[in-house]
Amino acid sequence: GAVVSQHPSRVICKSGTSVKIECRSLDFQATTMFWYRQFPKKSLMLMATSNEGSKATYEQGVEKDKFLINHASLTLSTLTVTSAHPEDSSFYICSASPPTGTDTQYFGPGTRLTVL
Amino acid sequence: SQQGEEDPQALSIQEGENATMNCSYKTSINNLQWYRQNSGRGLVHLILIRSNEREKHSGRLRVTLDTSKKSSSLLITASRAADTASYFCAPNSGYSTLTFGKGTMLLVSP
């Protein structure tokens, strides 16, 4: 099946620093990727839709300047958490859909961000 | 996109027993998908059932869909400890994005 990877799997950083998370589709091209955030024991919250070659579409309440998304190629999207604060600590998951028309999304393994 | 609501919130069973979890949604759909998430991991796609299907099987999984009641169920037969995870449904009305509820947390004890 389709494989989506994320890097890094875990990151601990100091408050005020920026952290970049990569999402790659390994065996298919994805014009659209999605970024989710999950709080402990909570459901996934869609943060934004990443579109290759154009600006990301952010969900209501998600700060564009805080969570920078760049979809530079058909296999790579990056999420940069700028000036991270402890409240940004969370589990970030990306997903992508192969162009098969089934709407099935394949998820990356997630990135655990801890901001001290 | 619309959010599915899973029920029960948590389910604890013994190995070998069957586990049934339900999903309800509010508006018409093109398909409904079930996903599994192991603790601290990403989601894994389990099965997709289309709106014109009533039942679908995949290994030990059986999914039903009742569009008149706007509900779906996921049955895991002969459960194993490795089935311990959270299970989410995602009703899809034709948009690319999926919205997830809080899921059902399944615990299978040896």
What does this structure look like?
The complex is a heterodimer of chains A (116) and B (110). Chain A is an all-beta fold and 116 residues long. In chain A, 0% of the residues lie in helices and 51% in strands. Chain A has strands at 4-7, 10-13, 19-25, 32-38, 44-51, 57-58, 67-73, 76-81, 90-96, 106-107, 111-115. In chain A, the strands form two sheets. In chain A, strands 2, 4, 5, 6, 9, 10 and 11 form a seven-stranded mixed β-sheet that branches. A four-stranded antiparallel β-sheet of chain A has the order 1-3-8-7, with no helix packed on it. In chain A, strand 5 (44-51) and strand 6 form a beta hairpin. Chain A is globular. Chain A starts with a strand and ends with a strand. Chain B has strands spanning 5-7, 10-14, 19-24, 31-37, 43-50, 55-58, 61-66, 71-76, 85-92, 104-109. Chain B is built from no helices and ten strands. The chains are: A mainly beta (116), B mainly beta (110). The A-B interface holds A 1, 4, 6, 32, 34, 42-44, 46, 49, 91, 93, 95, 97, 102-110, 112 and B 1, 3, 30-31, 33, 35, 40-45, 48, 88, 92, 94, 96-103.
Number of helical segments with 4 or more residues of chain A: 0
Poorly predicted sequence stretches spanning 5 or more consecutive residues of chain A: none
Sheet with the most strands of chain A? 7 strands, mixed
Mean pLDDT of chain A: 88
The geometry of chain A reads as: globular
N- to C-terminal separation of chain A? 37 Å
Strand-residue fraction of chain A? over 45%
Give average pLDDT of chain B, whole number.
Answer: 90
What is the gist of this entry?
Chain A is an all-beta fold. Helices cover 0% and strands 51% of the residues of chain A.
